[in-house]
TrEMBL record, chains A, B:
The lineage of its organism: Bacteria, Bacillati, Bacillota, Bacilli, Bacillales. Its main location: cytoplasm. GO terms for biological process: DNA strand elongation involved in DNA replication. PANTHER family: BETA SLIDING CLAMP (PTHR30478:SF0), DNA POLYMERASE III SUBUNIT BETA (PTHR30478). Keywords: Coiled coil, Cytoplasm, DNA replication, DNA-binding, DNA-directed DNA polymerase, Nucleotidyltransferase, Transferase. Forms a ring-shaped head-to-tail homodimer around DNA. GO terms for molecular function: 3'-5' exonuclease activity; DNA binding; DNA-directed DNA polymerase activity. The keyword Ligase does not apply. It holds the Pfam family DNA_pol3_beta. The keyword DNA repair does not apply. GO terms for cellular component: cytoplasm; DNA polymerase III complex. This is Beta sliding clamp.
């Protein structure tokens, strides 16, 4: 293999794949990035056996020229930083047998030891003839809005993942840790007719996917096969293993009636919750108490050791009964922050029944937070 | 105590003192900040018994109004973040006996528990009738340029500090870990006649002092008394305990003749060192080899496991003998980066004798790096 590649393009491609590198594996080769030069492209792959990322650079005179095809695995720990620190816009890579590469750029010359590319794990072969089609920024948004509610603890492993329910025309994203739930429905650009599939993506993987997705309308396809989710764009493929186990049916726990409904502006509500949490975060369950009145709410928190706080927040609209209840302030703040609009609708069904937060302008999106019992 | 204070002014003052707060002391009160309101000012003090920082806010209609003098100690962990998160530009503080404070700002009302201000440690009483006078930015520069060479390890405790030699017209800053040395002389705006004092400031303290000093020509005074250094500006006083023990006489180890002298541009030299360190950092002593020729130097490093690197850097000027030696690349890079100018002069005295780096334009500033022996 002998190639000439633009430093910034190579550095950008390495940045894409490097988060899939296994930093502390007992298999040193998983700490590497596999480079494969074909006659017209350079492919980079990294995998930690849980996720894999593959990205392509097409040969063209501005960014990449392939003099001789070939392949090698290079240790990410050195190669990524080295490429970033090279002095010249052009980098020349020449593989030397067995398994090392000569890297030159202006006056700097490196020889870096690598690994046999034949030893590198293969990516799953996934046929994606009927994928689900979506825009990158929409997918990224839906993940961000729901991943916050997934479980951090392993008590019920399936809840540590984000559930995606694929239908022919939509994907519904659900995250829940059994104290709160976030649900977002996203309509597809296209999907296979009559489709009905469920994928539960591990929390770590979904964070990496969100990081990788560009913040624009790049078309992205999603395919599920062999307990693996594949998310592809023109230049990048992201693979993740899925969680096994039955995801709970959450459709029945979302109340359809309410006793009290308020409209409240997002930012003042979030700021007041942040202040209440300064005190509440010291307490088990981070308990914040909420008093609902006709034109305002009062948030309060109390800690024997630290002190107490109370604050009133005006309401834009109120209907139904006055009510007092308590909730985990952190869960409520996570929910409130996840909304984009200026105003929220919050429905209350009773002191020990779920609260439902929705954007007032009615996207297919909601957060459910359970109250907590206080003495 | 009852005061009304502008949120940003209070937050800025808290930021000044909070780094002196003791986060993990067995004495909870040291995790606090003492507020003292006199008739015309608010004083904030924090100390971890090693350093202390005191800052003043003068009463004036735009930032501070004192309704009733008084004093309290408030836990930094809550108070600092709370002030930062308050909704209104104005904060109202009312001390309630015993030892708590009511904090209100717009609709938000806190009660925060504190400590008896009488229990807070007193600051040392240091008379500063004949202080050393200096500009803040100069002091900050001199610290930055020399602190890099102090010892990280406690083998010889006095070397973990930065040595300041005060004379009537100058301060000389010296840092050394016995493998390298940095020395910088700073001429004073004023100092006591016939003065000759030495202060060795602990490494942690000197970093905090540098952080606190503004990047401008604010006048600053320095006073040494009772094994304490006091650095004062109009609004802030910084106290630090000094290290005990005899600081070594370093004047004799700086060579006065040389065999080879080069002039080299700082940035290309620093970048080439960074690249060599990518390989060298894996090796004990981070060994980088240097070959001196008439118009260029060659830097190289080698690691059996990782690979090797070599790079040539052009010289602006060369006089004396060709030479090959090796050094700790990290020490050399620290030294090179500490210079501000475009060009450095490096003097060589032999393969096992010190290298001396100076700015070519000849400030009172040098770095000494000892070569390392290689096989």
């Amino acid at each position: 293999m002998r190639i000439h590649v633009h430093q910034q393009s190579l550095a950008a491609a390495l940045q894409q794949v490097q988060r899939a590198v296994s930093a502390h594996s007992t298999m040193p080769i998983l700490g590497g990035i596999k480079l494969t030069a074909d006659t017209d492209s350079l492919r980079l792959i990294a995998t930690n056996q849980e996720i894999a990322v593959e990205t392509y650079l097409a040969a063209d005179s501005d960014t990449l020229s392939i003099e001789m095809p070939g392949s090698i695995v290079l240790p990410a720990r050195y190669f990524v930083e080295l490429v970033r620190k090279l002095p010249d816009p052009w980098v020349h890579l020449t593989v030397q047998q067995p398994y090392s590469v000569q890297i030159t750029s202006a006056q700097a010359a490196f020889l870096l030891h690598g690994f046999d590319p034949e030893e590198f794990p293969r990516l799953p072969q996934i046929a994606s003839d009927q994928p689900f089609l979506i825009h990158s920024d929409n997918l990224k948004d839906a993940i961000r809005q729901t991943v916050v509610a997934i479980a951090a603890e392993e008590t019920r492993p399936v809840l540590t993942g984000l559930c995606m329910k694929f239908d022919a025309d939509s994907i519904t994203f659900i995250g829940t840790d059994s104290h709160r739930l976030a649900s977002r429905k996203l309509f597809l650009q296209g999907g296979p007719e009559g489709a009905s599939e469920i994928a539960v993506v591990p929390g770590k993987s979904i964070h990496e996917l969100a990081r990788l997705l560009p913040e624009d309308d790049t078309p992205v396809t999603m395919t599920i096969a062999d307990n693996t989710l594949l998310v592809s764009s023109d230049t990048t493929r992201f693979f993740t293993r899925l969680l096994e186990g039955q995801y709970p049916d959450t459709s029945k726990i979302i109340p359809t009636t309410f006793k009290t409904r308020i409209h409240i502006r997002r930012d003042p509500f979030a700021s007041a919750l942040e202040r209440a949490l300064l005190i509440a975060r010291e307490m088990q369950n981070q308990v914040v108490r909420l008093q609902l009145q006709s034109d305002r709410i009062e948030l309060s928190a109390h800690s024997h050791d630290v002190g107490r706080v109370s604050e009133q927040v005006p309401l834009d609209q109120f209907s139904g009964d006055a009510l007092t209840l308590a909730f985990n302030g952190k869960y409520m703040l996570d929910a409130v922050r996840s909304f984009d609009g200026e105003q929220l609708t919050v429905d209350f069904t009773g002191t020990m029944s779920p609260m439902i937060l929705r954007p007032t302008d009615g996207q297919e999106y909601l957060h459910l937070v359970l109250p907590v019992r206080t003495v």
